[in-house]
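Reply to dn_fold:

You asked what the input looked like. This is it:
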Amino acid sequence: MMKEATQPGITLNVKAPQFILTDIFDREINLESYTGKKVFIGFFRHAGCPFCNLRVHALKKRHAELKEKGLEMIFFFESGSRLLKSSMFHQEVSPIPLIADPERIWYQTYGIEQSMAKSMKSHLTSFIQTAIKAKMAGVPIHAMADGESITTMPAEFLLDENQIIRKIHYSNGLTDRMSMEHLIDFAEAT
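and this is what came back:
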């Protein structure tokens, strides 16, 4: 179920908060340089979260197709750069920028929710199935480290060619994301 809503600090139909950051691959990622392209920005939890790593895995598999349709992607994780770089899975996310934000500065800027209730509900109702899927897909699953939070809820944003936020999806649960069909439709829309 998609939740169309806003959190404090972010609204639809306004220019996305701009950033110039260095990703874990030591590349400068300047959001302004994406002007003229549609952009998916995904905010994920920690490096060992099977829910998020399955989503990253699915997006990574469709990266070439989505890029060909005109949709660029930028991923944020609340884990530190060192932890993300130590994971072969996360290293292989390249060429998609992967930005470490352990201080959660950009999580706060984009209004990413903290919810113990939603996180716990997801863990109680779907953790085992998700962990099995993660294991079968070969994506990392491990305990939190370096001050990561169990309460962080994922969020996804779609920006148009002028960097106007056209879609915001704050997850109601850890498996609640924009559908791949929705991403394709957005990429193909003129």
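Strands lie at 20-22, 28-30, 38-43, 71-77, 98-100, 155-159, 165-170.
Hope that clears it up.
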